Amino acid sequence: MTEIRVPTLGESVTEATVGEWLVKEGDRVSVDDPLVELETDKVSVSVPAPMAGVITSITAKEGDTVELDALLGEIGEANGTKASSSASSSNGSEAAASSAPTNKDEGGEPIEVLAPSSGESVTEADVGEWLVKIGDQVAVDETLVSLETDKAAVDVSAPSAGTITEIRQKEGETVTPGTVLAIITQGGGAVPETKSPEKASSAKPDPAAAKSASTTDRAALSPAPRRMIQENGLDPASIAGSGKDGRITKGDVVSYLKDQEAKPTPTPSTPSPSAPRDLGEREERVKMSRLRQTIARRLKESQNTAAMLTTFNDVDMSAVMEVRSQYKDLFEKKHGVKLGFMSFFVKACVHALREIPDVNAEIDGTDIIYKDHYDIGIAVGTEKGLVVPVLRDAEQKSLAEIEKGITDFGRRARDGQLSLEEMQGGTFTITNGGVYGSLMSTPILNMPQSGILGMHRIEKRPIVVGNEIVVRPMMYLALSYDHRIVDGKGAVTFLVRVKENLEDPQRLLLDL
Questions:
Q1: Which residue has the higher pLDDT, 429 or 9?
Q2: Are residues 360 and 466 in the same domain?
Q3: How does residue 441 score in pLDDT terms, banded at 50, 70 and 90?
Q4: Which of 229, 372, 396, 442 is deepest in the core (most CB within 10 A)?
């Protein structure tokens, strides 16, 4: 018998709250399988199995407060019959699933496809689009399904080659690390049709409907378009799919509906002014994605935690635009990437952060952490929401390296290929609302950072130079900062240094 105990939770952390148990008594587990989530005042910690075996007891209940090295439960060796019978009796539905044909007569071995751990503090995810269906043959490492967490999309690959014999989690369902998503049977064989959640009402095949069924398989509807099709009473076969393998997307349904509305229809009688409005077909309720929920939560936490203040300035972009115009072709030919404005802003900010270290620091309890590294977060807008990948050690990078990094971030952010590690640990953030036409804004801090610079659109405006009024390409800059650590003098000085470095880029070369 092996005890499951509370591990070391980090410096100054002495207790935790028992979160969700991912297993129950009687379950069989492998070494390092996640068993339970412990929540501290800083992070969530997953407790792994110290050995392979059967969960014989669970001592600490969900919601209990436990101290370091407290007993959580016990694991016994997986060679007795008592444990297996307990598992089957305590989990009726899963036992029924496991008793389904697994092709053992042909030597096939069932392999579980588990929801992976998606990173520190990530405890659940939504099941996205399944790229396979029951009966499909898959190869090792072939992508089966994507899981959408509150930070990024994670692809789940096949751990073994074989046949998909079960799909246990529907698209849109919420799962935790270690949840069984599907079953792969090695060696192929018979497939239990009733196990697919997409075939809840599996009637006997009708030869007359074979063509319609094949069209529906081609569409492979995901939750959003499926809901729109059902609500509007549409036939999927009449909608052309533009997604992968001809799948129908939400945009395809919207376009189809617009085309139908454009067709002439009989003019309905004018309703009575007193009749209640029916907005059912003119409104849509959609569950917020986990990324959008996290954006909302973090922004509100930032407002509630930091003493946020914004200071403004404007910058004459003539010098940067002249340098860019003069060298952009040579720059792209040599480095294979276009010379944009962001690299100049990154360099100018790093230079100013060195002079005003408070803006590059963060508050941790009653301590201030000053950082002698400059990891600049670059806000990137995607269809799912705003993400902030981090450009590490920006002070050591050339303009070309910065431009390549930013270009790569933008491409992979739109494709949903950024990893969690690439979006954590920044010391300062730059966001460019100017690409959307913004003239001025007050950006919200990316906690626990103490500063964020907002760029805006470049606009020709009359300004006074000497005693003359001239027209120059001007941009408003906004620095939002945490007034608990950054004083007004430091914030204004930082923004002035950024302005000076951009209006005279040679200062960057001379380190002035």
A1: 429
A2: yes
A3: very high
A4: 229
Whether residue 171 contacts residue 144, with contact meaning beta carbons closer than 8 Å, is answered with no
Tell me how far apart the alpha carbons of residues 54 and 126 are, in angstroms, rounded to a whole number.
Answer: 28
The model's pLDDT over 463-473, given as tens digits with 9 standing for 90+, comes to 998 889 999 99
pLDDT, one tens digit per residue, over 480-511 is: 999 999 999 999 999 999 999 999 988 887 77
Asked if 435 and 279 count as a contact pair (C-beta separation under 8 A), the reply is no
Please indicate, yes or no, whether residues 327 and 364 belong to a single structural domain of this protein: yes
Chain segment 347-362, per-residue pLDDT in tens: 999 999 999 999 999 9
Host domain of residue 151: 102-198
Residues 318 and 299 in one domain: yes
Main-chain phi, psi angles of 491, to 5 degrees: -65, -45
Q: Which of 165, 198, 231 is the last residue of a domain?
A: 198
Distances, alpha carbon 434 to alpha carbons 163, 438, 455, 456, 474, in Å: 50, 5, 6, 4, 12
How many CB atoms within 10 Å of residue 342?
Answer: 21
Structure pTM?
0.51
DSSP letter for 449, please.
B
DSSP 344-405: HHHHHHHHHHHH-GGGG-EEETTEEE--SS--EEE-EE-SS-EE--EETTGGG--HHHHHHH
What is the rounded end-to-end Cα distance, in angstroms, of the chain?
67
Catalytic residue ranges: 483, 487
Can you tell me whether residue 86 is helix, strand or coil?
Answer: helix
- Among 153, 179, 198, which residue terminates a domain? 198
At 76, which CATH number? 2.40.50.100
Task: Count the Cβ atoms, other than its own, within 10 Å of residue 333.
Answer: 8
Residues 358 and 484: beta-carbon distance below 8 Å: no
**If we measure between CA atoms, which residue out of 37, 142, 138, 28 comes closest to residue 80?**
28
497 and 351 co-located in one domain: yes
Whether residues 119 and 90 share a domain: the answer is no
**Are the C-beta atoms of 481 and 312 separated by less than 8 Å?**
no
